[in-house]
Amino acid sequence: MRTWVKHITTWDVQNLVLLRKRRSPSFRSFSSQNYLNGSFSNVQRHMVHILRYAPALLSCCCHRFCTGIQLFDEMPQRALHVRENHFELVVDCIKLCLKKPNILTVTVAHCAAVKIGVLTHLPTSTSLLTAYSKAGDFTSSRDLFDEITNRDVVAWNAIIAASLVNNCYMTAMEFFEKMIKAQTGFDSTTLLLMVSASLHVKNFDQGRAIHCVSIKHGMLVDVSLGNALIDMYAKCSDLSSSEHLFEEMEYTDVVSWNSIMRGSLYNGDPEKLLYYFKRMTLSEEIADHISLSCAISACSSLRELAFGQTIHGHGIKLGYNDSSRVSVANSLISLYSQCKDIESAETVFREIAYKDIVSWNAMLEGFASNEKINEVFDILVEMQTTGSFRPDIVTLTTILPICAQLMLSREGKTIHGFAIRRQMVYDHLPLLNCLIDMYSKCNLVEKAELLFHSTAKRDLVSWNTMISGYSQNKYSEEAQFFFRELLRRGPNCSSSTVFSILSSCNSLNGLNFGKSVHCWQLKSGFLNHILLINSLMHMYINCGDLTASFSILHENSALADIASWNTVIVGCGQGNHYQESLETFRLFRQEPPFAYDSITLVSVLSACANLELLIQGKSLHGLALKSPLGSDTRVQNSLITMYDRCRDINSARAVFKFCSTSNLCSWNCMISALSHNRECREALELFRHLQFKPNEFTMVSVLSACTQIGVLRHGKQVHARVFRSGFQDNSFISSALVDLYSNCGRLDTALQVFRHSVEKSESAWNSMISAYGYHGNSEKAIKLFHEMCDSGTRVTKSTFVSLLSACSHSGLVNQGLLYYDSMLEKYGVQPDTEHHVFVVDMLGRSGRLDDAYEFAKGLPSHASSGVWGTLLSACNYHGELKLGKQIAELLFEMEPQNVGYYISLSNMYVAAGSWKDATDLRQSIQDQGLRKAAGYSLIDVGVG
Question: How many domains are there within the chain?
Fold first, then answer.
């Protein structure tokens, strides 16, 4: 026992005297000499004060604490005469330690127990053991247990419980084995404790063994043990055993019902939870706040708003709407939020008298999930001011994804600063990962990388987030480097890793690396899920290897779902492989369970629109009408666009007219279709009756309509609307305004709009270059082209269309040919039909018809009708009948219904005096029923 006196009697008597002077007048009667002489009358009078002020003693004289050990080591050992009142006082002190565990107060109580010699009293020593455990000193608990010689079941249970309290689960199992060997016996409490230990170490077999032992010894009559076993089976993913045990239990209480309901929710079976909740309400057992919270959570998972409202009413009847049961209110907030009834969620939140941090976080999450962004930040401010709650990890990890999604970098940085001040960043990996994701999605990859490298505590989510961030921001090489590093030294990869790295292979340059990832997937077994197969097919499509993608789809046709087919159909469409997209859809229709969705139809309609396949588009329209997808807004919008591209404006009008639930996109599609098909006044009238607040796309379409009809008055009104809406900095709108003012003869205003553009896109540069060309300022157009190159803006095919047009209109043939020759070599732009047309136009305007003819014949692919048509116009202008007749014959074969070619040749016959040939050609036009569209002129007669 001397060793224990040495360990626990660590009070410095001089410090106790110091405490008497500093703390309380009641301590002034305390005599250190009386304490050393064993006068327990003084100890009895002042024990409560010692226990009360022990923590203060540590804080005011900690530097003198250790030196006091020697005073008690030198105390003479003497026989102690224990009086009953002394014993009762020590027991009361130990009970106080159990209620408010503190290592100093427990040590004082232990000291007193040793002093009066009551440690031989088994309940006292057991209580002290438990007090040490609750105070976090498990070592002292074990040492005290070793000193107990007459151990009973309660003592063994106490040390096992102490092991569990201090997370020493394997130690608890070792004590249980020793208990069995000591043949002390055990009770239901022992088994309950061992069930808890088995659950924590995930030892399912041992849990089953304990269940068998409890049945053998008839201990399942203890409801608490049965409840623990129900919970253990459920958390080991054996819900069936939990249910069997629950049904076999002779006695059940509210905890039993709660255990089986929580087990159902834990195993992802909310329907079964509601089944047990209904049974519980029909039984004699009354639901408590845990039962209601579980049932409400199940309704949230199933989006069962009506059932949840019923439970809400049931809870009010049971009196669980007061502040003491805030967990029920918190669950209701989540239910209403997930069912999109955010007003009811806020009502419940406002009615909570005493909110906790979970209440605030639930309301914040509710606003976030319902896209109430302003309210999210408002509730965050209110939380810190009115509620006086500091944001915790849950709060921050709820707000950061919003900042990432909406690219709110300033708000994200503010949250980062708050987390740094509270020292929360590097202690919580989920928060660190959210910050990395936020910076990545806000195009601040450098900051994300700096944050990633600032800590050595990384998990697989950290690596995946960083790889995904690089991929999203087009840093393919960096993403692939990080992937290699992850394979070399990081944790095992997951499916998210595969998705992240495959998205970095999005061009022809990434094909080889994508193939290596494919091989790695085969070796690592990451092709066992259809989502990974779909991702791999999408990678091959992005890299231009359609054959490999189709091959993977064919090999996995048995596993392929609608998402697999959509992956190929959408991918081909995004890569401008429209014919392949339609072919894939044809194959898809031949599969037995042909179950298409809106994504399928939208993608195929887009392919028909780009290929101007009106017949196929109409058949898809009929297919959509046969299914509920015919009323889908996205499908209807795609149909409007398809008919627009196929020049069937009447069908587009019909689709728009019968739209069941039109949105702003529907109106934009219709306005754009009217503008594209030269129904500009109708487009402006439709804009005037717009039922939604216009966006940038609306303004671009309306400005295009104004440009076509050349009505500057309407264009200025739209320009004013642009300023009122705050769209003036949009680069596409700036480009449309430049086109408007230049086409209406206001080059000065067009230049002013261009120069005041905050962000000049390539389309704005192209529009201004084209404007200079149309107004005969080719030198300024060329100068602006070089200015565009110097600014770092990427030149495109449209840029060279505008530049070659300017050279053609100004007669700068040689300079125009030089730019044409340098397109591919210097600027990496592949010439297409439009560029060929302008080269022929340049040569034709300057009279170099033979050169134009040789150029057209020498094109890599057979020249289009547009090229030959331009050359025919040049022949007509210069009166070159022989060449013109030859070209016209060729055009008659290519486009026999184009009356313009016949008219051009007829005019050439007239100019050459060949009246008979002209008359015969005119008669041929009449015989074929061809008719030239009537020309018209516009004049603005409006006011002002």
Answer: 4
